Amino acid sequence: MLKIDGLVKRYGERVVVDHLHLQVSGGEIYALLGPNGAGKSSTLACVLGFAQPDAGSIRLAHSELPIAEAATRHAAYISENVALYERLSGVENVEFFMRLSGRKPRRQEIEALLERAGLPPEAWGRQAHSYSKGMRQKVGIVMALAKQASLLVLDEPTSGLDPEASVAFGGLIRELANQGTAVLMATHDLFRAQELAHRCGMLVAGHLVGEWVVDALHAGELERNYLATLAGRPA
Ligand SMILES: Nc1ncnc2c1ncn2[C@@H]1O[C@H](COP(=O)(O)OP(=O)(O)OP(=O)(O)O)[C@@H](O)[C@H]1O
């Protein structure tokens, strides 16, 4: 569970997130939409403890810890380009990641995770520099699975993936959510957001200006709402 109350983020004099309230329950996928520069990544950076909020509170998994510590313990992050140790194989990357969090995984355990994420076995032992973007995303999912993260944060997760990889990736996200993980994802992909998310929120200039329950929308309605909201018309 993620609860953001009155979040403010400034860069110098400029307010880029302005008193944001947002909640994502366990098992829920929430898509954060909005034009370039709306404040989506800044919001995610505050949630992950990468940036210091100027006001407001962020609570994760009912933890009383400061958000940076809570995020280190309970959150996993998959960016547009998952950073891996390029000279290590997929298996070695996962092993290294798990050792960093104090675990000593057996090879079978790592392979079971890679299999579950759909990384082809022929790639398990290959150096990560040869991985496609979709393969990197899958290793990112393995890290989230290995960590048993309560919150998964994604920034533009499907940008640049081909449709098949994008659908497969969406399936994995759903699977994680079905197991109780809260998912917060920033995206410009309205089609995928409507397909994947339970709720969508729209940020404009740091303000949450619209929020929709996806089940209540007809096909293509999210895009119409988004464009109407941007144009200042009622959605
Ligand atoms: N480190 C920083 N220093 C100064 N300004 C920043 C910094 N990071 C972001 N900004 C500014 O904050 C505003 C919000 O940026 P942010 O990256 O959060 O938007 P976004 O909604 O994620 O945009 P995009 O869709 O283009 O990724 C922008 O005007 C951006 O230039």
UniProtKB/TrEMBL annotation:
Keywords: ATP-binding, Cell membrane, Membrane, Nucleotide-binding, Transport. GO terms for molecular function: ATP binding; ATP hydrolysis activity. The keyword Nucleotide-binding applies. InterPro entries: AAA+_ATPase (IPR003593), ABC_transporter-like_ATP-bd (IPR003439), ABC_transporter-like_CS (IPR017871), ABC_Transporter_VariousFunc (IPR051782), P-loop_NTPase (IPR027417). It comes from Roseateles oligotrophus. Coiled coil: none annotated. Pfam families: ABC_tran. Signal peptide: none annotated. This is ABC-2 type transport system ATP-binding protein. Residues 2-230 form the ABC transporter domain. The lineage of its organism: Bacteria, Pseudomonadati, Pseudomonadota, Betaproteobacteria, Burkholderiales.
